[in-house]
């Protein structure tokens, strides 16, 4: 899952991004509304965690722009105000969910994951394919009943492949969904991660390389 965090309190923004990355999400961070508009014009995000009171361009206007573009991106709006009227206004603008500050980080993660599931064809909370069972919420992976310990990027790549339900996923798509914009697209990080993931999942191999196209399970 790829997430954009838009928050002008840099310490909070960086802390949120770090926590989401630990949950195997690819996260980009910006600190004002103008930068947010630039990013959503370039990258495809599953979820935008959007502070409402932003400098340069207000969070409301960023949210309206996402709606106007008809993007499948879901918006979780943050605000220091807990007034019901503010929550209602934010939802009417086009936000998909609303979380007042201060918030429990566990709740933020749960809401981001719930919104991420709504950006594509609905799938069950626990993904199962080819003898593999993946639980995104608990960050657990089992193969034929055996637990498999994965690093965050390995987990993210496996989740993208599982969600594709047998379709081929290109290296570029994996890079888009599992890494942030600071990753050099010309590195072999995808190939190395897939190779390590194959080894950890064990025999017989379940990740198939489709020459010239990508990977599938």
Automatic annotation (TrEMBL):
One of its GO terms (biological process) is regulation of DNA-templated transcription. Member of the two-component regulatory system CutS/CutR, involved in the regulation of copper metabolism. CutR suppresses a defective melC1 gene, encoding a putative copper-transfer gene, probably by altering copper metabolism. One of its GO terms (molecular function) is transcription cis-regulatory region binding. Residues 2-116 form the Response regulatory domain. Pfam families: Response_reg, Trans_reg_C. Keywords: DNA-binding, Phosphoprotein, Transcription, Transcription regulation, Two-component regulatory system. The modification 4-aspartylphosphate is found at residue 51. Residues 124-217 bind DNA. Residues 124-217 form the OmpR/PhoB-type domain. PANTHER family: REGULATOR OF RPOS (PTHR48111), TRANSCRIPTIONAL REGULATORY PROTEIN CUTR (PTHR48111:SF36). The lineage of its organism: Bacteria, Bacillati, Actinomycetota, Actinomycetes, Kitasatosporales. This is Transcriptional regulatory protein CutR. GO terms for cellular component: cytosol; protein-DNA complex. InterPro entries: CheY-like_superfamily, OmpR/PhoB-type_DNA-bd, Sig_transdc_resp-reg_receiver, WalR-like, WH-like_DNA-bd_sf.
